[in-house]
Automatic annotation (TrEMBL):
<keyword id="KW-1133">Transmembrane helix</keyword>
<comment type="similarity">
    <text>Belongs to the CTL (choline transporter-like) family.</text>
</comment>
<keyword id="KW-1000">Mitochondrion outer membrane</keyword>
<keyword id="KW-0812">Transmembrane</keyword>
<feature type="transmembrane region" description="Helical">
    <location>
        <begin position="232"/>
        <end position="252"/>
    </location>
</feature>
<dbReference type="GO" id="GO:0005741">
    <property type="term" value="C:mitochondrial outer membrane"/>
</dbReference>
<keyword id="KW-0813">Transport</keyword>
<feature type="transmembrane region" description="Helical">
    <location>
        <begin position="498"/>
        <end position="518"/>
    </location>
</feature>
<keyword id="KW-0496">Mitochondrion</keyword>
<feature type="transmembrane region" description="Helical">
    <location>
        <begin position="562"/>
        <end position="585"/>
    </location>
</feature>
<comment type="function">
    <text>Choline transporter.</text>
</comment>
<keyword id="KW-0050">Antiport</keyword>
<dbReference type="GO" id="GO:0015297">
    <property type="term" value="F:antiporter activity"/>
</dbReference>
<keyword id="KW-0472">Membrane</keyword>
<keyword id="KW-0325">Glycoprotein</keyword>
<dbReference type="InterPro" id="IPR007603">
    <property type="entry name" value="Choline_transptr-like"/>
</dbReference>
<protein>
    <recommendedName>
        <fullName>Choline transporter-like protein</fullName>
    </recommendedName>
</protein>
Length: 706
């Protein structure tokens, strides 16, 4: 279909509308298909571009690898535990040289258990029982004890020494402990490195630091988990209380919005008045005191700011500033009184609208669920893409060899010419990488993954906004409220948005996604340039970050109002954005007043709900309420459920007020359109409520009152 024209004789929401921005809709579908291809959602499908889920292997992120690239830490296998970190377990004496420019990677072996004693291979070689124990920590190629010890160590079939270790996260870490301030490993302060030298156990500290952090974190996580297991139902009760409080606050705004706004304005005037009085009293009190008449310019800059409080000129300046603020606020009240009343009336009307579309309060859960799907698919695709590399093996040697550093295959290495020309050469695992076309373009696929995440996430948010706007617009443009409203306004608006305006939502979210990707790129460049000394580049980057931050905020504001116009008129994105922008610019003062009034009420509501629920949770979980003192569960950290309740209450309140804010913005644009398009005649009656008409002294001639 063709885009719906902007009808000057419009009297209500246009339900007979056509599809808008079809090109963007097709582009979104193609991009989603490409995204599925890149992610490879179907493991069994072979596509032209190899899917990440076919090539990727998340085990590369979860499990460590040995010197041959095999996965360690897989439970129930001989490779259940990984080796100790190279710098804390098996030291190497390799030094790069012209003959051997690349040192072989440190020996790392997957084992079925961690070593529990000090032992060197030279010591174990002469003891059959010790050698049998040592065999568990050698490579599978180590079969016979007839091989000379130096050959075994040279061929890296066994580590030079073992140290007592403890398993942690399927890895073996040195079992470091402190006794009376002395660092020890296995009750020893020194150990034999297997090469005839004694080393201090403090050299193992670096490898054990990470283990201690992980261990402490795991213990903390276990205690927090225990707190959740005994307090989860009380947390749910607290969140339900926050939900009920949010709903009650929204309902009460219908009756108390005006009172709260005017009380706050009066309190602000009284506070400023008291500030003026206090400044005058301090100014008068300092009269005649020594040093109080020194001017600020003569005193100059002082690090101790309390010095300025002993000057009469300081209090005179404070008094003048407060007087100016008081005067400005009083003048604004005089000239903007009617606009403040309109803002309050719209807020009250929004409360009535939500009362007729109660399902709108639960709609953010749908948006949240879709966003979780986007995040989950993006994260899984990013992991599979980042683990799509293959194990790369390189030739390592200690003497001169023309094949040093070249790629090799362990399966055929022993039968190749390399071993004949370089007898000491080894084919060892070097890193994960790849040289195919797919691996070369992995960074492009990661960039595409990030871009699609922003696009789809913004599309989901846009779909939620246009659905809510359509539901609330159907309330405003119903002449007899709520009799003329659809039976299911929210579902009707959702269906119209998907059927007719997927392209427009894709267009708006695409523009925002491009700006957000540019911001992410700038943040990445800023991170890379932190160590650079080029001040001009840093300054230019900071300016670009600031500009694109402002641009993102503006586009979000424009998109939000464009989606409202799309929901009302069914016009395409560009037309809706232009009409919304100029409509708001023609009523800029009303926009500013309504924005500040709603911001104040939402801030007050969030503060009231989160604060009251948080205080209640604090007194309950710290067992300070005598009536339920025995009911509160015993906790390791009482702040765990308290913080959970506070954060959850804020998210719940934010979800309720986001719906309320969308309702206010939608009714405001409808109100402005109503004023510009209708005149109260029988042909063009006003659709606004009777309270708004009474406030603006408008009437509908020849029409019954709504």
């Amino acid at each position: 279909g063709t885009p719906q024209k902007y009808d000057p004789t419009f009297k209500g929401p246009i339900y007979d509308r056509g599809c808008t921005d079809i090109v963007c809709c097709v582009l979104l579908v193609v991009a989603i298909v490409g995204y599925v291809v890149v992610g490879g959602a179907d493991h069994g499908v072979t596509v032209l571009c190899p899917p990440a889920w076919t090539h990727g292997d998340p085990r590369k992120v979860i499990y460590p690898t040995d010197s041959r690239g095999q996965f360690c830490g897989q439970q129930g296998t001989p490779n259940e535990y990984g080796p100790a970190p190279p710098d804390s377990g098996f030291p190497t004496e390799c030094r790069p040289s012209p003959a051997a420019p690349r040192c072989p990677p440190p020996l790392q072996i997957c084992v079925s258990k961690c070593p529990d004693r000090y032992l060197t291979y030279l010591t174990a070689y002469g003891n059959p029982s010790s050698l049998e124990y040592y065999r568990d920590f050698c490579t599978p190629e180590f079969r016979s004890s007839r091989k000379a010890p130096l050959e075994v160590l040279k061929d890296k079939e066994c580590p030079a020494m073992l140290i007592p270790s403890t398993p942690l996260a399927r890895r073996c870490f040195p079992a470091i402990q402190a006794k009376k301030g002395v660092i020890m490993v296995g009750n020893e302060t020194t150990y034999d490195d297997g090469r005839g030298r004694r080393r201090n156990v403090t050299e193992l500290l670096e490898g054990a630091k990470k283990a201690n952090v992980v261990l402490e974190t795991r213990q903390l996580a276990m205690k927090i988990f225990e707190d959740y297991t005994v307090s989860w139902y009380w947390i749910i009760i607290g969140l339900v209380i926050a939900m009920v409080a949010s709903l009650i606050f929204i309902v009460l705004l219908r009756f108390l919005a005006g009172i709260m706004v005017w009380v706050m304005i009066v309190m602000l005037i009284l506070v400023l008045g008291y500030g003026i009085f206090h400044c005058y009293m301090e100014y008068a009190k300092l009269k005649g005191e020594a040093g109080s008449d020194v001017s600020l310019t003569d005193l100059g800059f002082q690090t101790d700011l309390r010095v300025y409080l002993h000057l009469r000129q300081t209090w005179l300046a404070f008094m003048i500033i407060l007087c100016v603020l008081e005067l400005v606020i009083v003048l604004l009240l005089i000239f903007l009184r009617k606009r403040i009343l309109i803002a309050i009336a719209l807020i009250k009307e929004a409360s009535r609208a939500i009362g007729h579309v109660m399902s709108s309060l639960l709609f953010p859960l749908c948006t949240f669920f879709l966003l979780c799907l986007c995040i989950a698919y993006w994260a899984s695709t990013a992991v599979f893409l980042s683990t799509s590399n293959e194990a790369v093996y390189k030739v390592f040697n200690e003497s001169a060899c023309p094949f040093s550093g070249q790629t090799c295959k362990p399966e055929t290495f022993n039968t190749s010419n390399v071993t004949k020309l370089c007898p000491d050469a080894q084919c060892l695992f070097a890193f994960y990488g790849g040289e195919t076309a797919y691996h070369k373009y992995l960074i492009v696929l990661q960039f595409f993954n990030v871009f699609m995440f922003f696009w789809l996430a913004n599309f989901v948010i846009a779909l939620g906004q246009v659905t809510l706007a359509g539901a609330f617009a159907s309330y405003y443009w119903a002449f007899k409220k709520p009799d003329d409203m659809p039976a299911f306004p929210l579902f009707s608006a959702f269906g119209r948005a998907l059927r007719y305006h997927t392209g427009s939502l894709a267009f708006g979210s695409l523009v925002l996604a491009v700006v957000q990707v540019i911001r992410v790129t700038l943040e990445y460049l800023d991170h890379r340039l932190k160590a650079a000394e080029n001040k001009f580049a840093k300054f230019l980057l900071s300016c670009l970050k600031c500009c694109f931050w402002c641009l993102e905020k503006f586009i979000k504001f424009l998109n939000r109002n464009a989606y409202i116009m799309i929901a009302i008129y069914g016009t395409n994105f560009c037309t809706s954005a232009r009409n919304a922008f100029f409509l708001l610019m023609r009523n800029i003062i009303r926009v500013a007043v309504l924005d500040k009034v709603t911001d104040f009420l939402f801030f007050l509501g969030k503060l009231l709900i989160v604060g009251s629920v948080g205080i209640l949770a604090f007194f309950f979980f710290t067992q300070r309420i005598k009536l339920v003192q025995d009911t509160a569960p015993p906790l390791n950290y009482y702040w765990v459920p308290i913080l959970t309740v506070i954060v959850g209450s804020y998210l719940i309140a934010h979800g309720f007020f986001s719906v309320y804010g969308m309702c206010v913005d939608t009714l405001f644009l409808c109100f402005l359109e109503d004023l510009e398009r209708n005149d109260g005649s029988a042909e063009k009656p006003y659709f606004m409520s009777q309270n708004l008409r009474k406030l603006l002294k408008k009437t509908n001639k020849g029409q019954p009152e709504a």
